[in-house]
Write a structure and sequence with these properties.
The protein is mainly α. Helices cover 61% and strands 3% of the residues. The chain folds into 3 domains: 129 residues, no CATH class; 42 residues; 73 residues, DNA Binding (I), subunit A (Orthogonal Bundle), CATH 1.10.30.50. A two-stranded antiparallel sheet has the order 1-2. The structure holds zinc ion (ZN).
Length: 331
C-alpha cells in the first residue's frame, strides 16, 4: 500500500512524463506539417484545406495555426528555443508568422515572450505587413455586432486574405478593407494621385513611366465612370468645361488645396471642421455664369453650402443663419 505522499510523487512523475511527451509530439507535429506545407500537400492531394485537415485528424483552424507556426520555426530558429522553454506558445508562433523577418526577429520575440496572447496581439498590431515596427500609440478598441450572414462575409474575407500568407486578425481584415475603400473613394487621395501623375508627366514626358501612370489612371477612370475611347473622352472633357460637370483636374486641385475640409469661417475666425458630406461650392454661382475653375470653387460641407446658396438667393433668414451657424452649437 502506497502512502499519500508516495501516491502524490507518483502522479507528479506521471504528469511530467506525459507533458514532456506531449511537447515532443507537438514539435514533431509542427515538423511534419511544415514538410507537408512545403509540398503543398492539400492541393497536391486534390483536397481543400478543410478536407485535408480532417484527413490528418485536425480541424481546419488547428491545421492553419500549426502550418503558420511551422513557417515561423523554419525561418527563425530562435523561436524554437522559446517554444521548447515554454516561453511562447504555438498560438504566438502562428500570430507572428506573417510579420516576423530576419531584421525584426529579436524585437518581436523579445516583446512577445512570456506575454499573454492578447498582449502579443496588441504588440503585433504595431508591426506592418512589411515587418516594420510602428511607434507605440494609444489603442482604441472597437466592438462590432454582426448578423450571422455578415459574419460569414467577414470569414470569407479572412479566407481571401489568408491566401497571401497567414490567417489575418479581425483588425487586419478591417484595416485592409478601410485602406482599399480610401484608395478607391477618398477624393483627397485621388487628387494626390492626380497631382503625382502630373508631376511625373512633367518630369518625364513619354518615358517608361507612362505605362505605370496609365494603369493608375485607368483604375481611377474605372471607379469614376465606364471606360471610353480617347475620342469620346476628349469630347466629353470639352463638354465638361462648358457643361455642368466640374473637370476632374479642377476638382482634384480644389480638394488638395482645401484638404477636403469645409472652408467656411466662423465669426470667431475658426474654420469649420467638417470633412463629411463635402461638396464643391461655386463662389460666383454656376447658374450666374461662374466658371469651373479652382479659383471659383471651394470645399464646403452640405450645411454651409446650402446656407451659402440660400444667402446668395437673398433669403434673409438663411443669411442670418450662415453668419451664426457652427457645427454642434446649432440645430
Ligand atoms: Zn462647414
Amino acid at each position: 500500500m502506497m502512502t499519500f505522499r508516495e501516491q502524490l510523487l507518483h502522479l507528479i512523475a506521471e504528469a511530467q512524463k506525459i507533458h514532456r511527451e506531449e511537447k515532443s509530439l507537438t514539435m514533431r507535429s509542427l515538423r511534419v506539417i511544415g514538410e507537408l506545407e512545403l509540398r503543398r500537400a492539400a492541393p497536391s492531394c486534390g483536397m481543400s484545406v478543410e478536407k485535408f485537415a480532417r484527413h490528418i485528424a485536425l480541424t481546419k483552424d488547428q491545421y492553419l495555426k500549426r502550418s503558420a507556426a511551422s513557417r515561423t520555426l523554419r525561418f527563425i530558429p530562435e523561436a524554437k528555443l522559446l517554444l521548447e522553454a515554454g516561453e511562447i506558445s504555438l498560438s504566438h508562433l502562428a500570430l507572428i508568422s506573417a510579420k516576423i523577418t530576419r531584421a525584426n526577429r529579436k524585437v518581436v520575440l523579445e516583446n512577445i515572450r512570456g506575454k499573454s496572447l492578447r498582449e502579443a496581439k496588441l504588440f503585433m498590431s504595431r508591426v506592418t505587413p512589411d515587418g516594420e515596427l510602428l511607434p507605440e500609440e494609444e489603442i482604441c478598441e472597437l466592438k462590432l455586432t454582426l448578423t450571422k450572414s455578415q459574419f460569414a462575409l467577414l470569414e470569407r474575407a479572412r479566407e481571401v486574405l489568408a491566401a497571401a500568407g497567414s490567417v489575418p486578425t479581425d483588425a487586419e481584415i478591417f484595416m485592409k478593407a478601410v485602406g482599399d475603400l480610401l484608395t478607391k473613394r477618398d477624393p483627397l487621395r485621388k487628387a494626390e494621385r492626380a497631382a503625382a501623375r502630373q508631376r511625373n508627366l512633367d518630369d518625364d514626358l513619354g518615358s517608361r513611366n507612362n505605362n505605370v501612370e496609365k494603369t493608375v489612371e485607368n483604375n481611377d477612370a474605372a471607379v469614376a465612370a465606364p471606360k471610353e475611347g480617347p475620342t469620346i473622352a476628349a469630347t466629353r472633357q470639352q463638354q465638361n468645361i462648358a457643361g455642368r460637370y466640374i473637370p476632374a483636374a479642377v476638382r482634384h486641385q480644389v480638394w488638395l488645396r482645401d484638404q477636403g475640409q469645409c472652408t467656411h469661417m466662423h465669426p470667431d475666425g475658426s474654420r469649420c471642421q467638417e470633412k463629411m458630406m463635402i461638396e464643391l461650392d461655386h463662389i460666383n454661382l454656376y447658374c450666374r455664369g461662374g466658371e469651373h475653375s479652382a479659383s471659383n470653387l471651394q470645399v464646403k460641407c452640405r450645411l454651409h453650402n446650402n446656407f451659402a446658396a440660400a444667402a446668395a438667393f437673398g433669403n434673409e433668414w438663411y443669411r442670418h443663419k450662415l453668419e451664426s451657424v457652427t457645427h454642434g452649437r446649432d440645430s
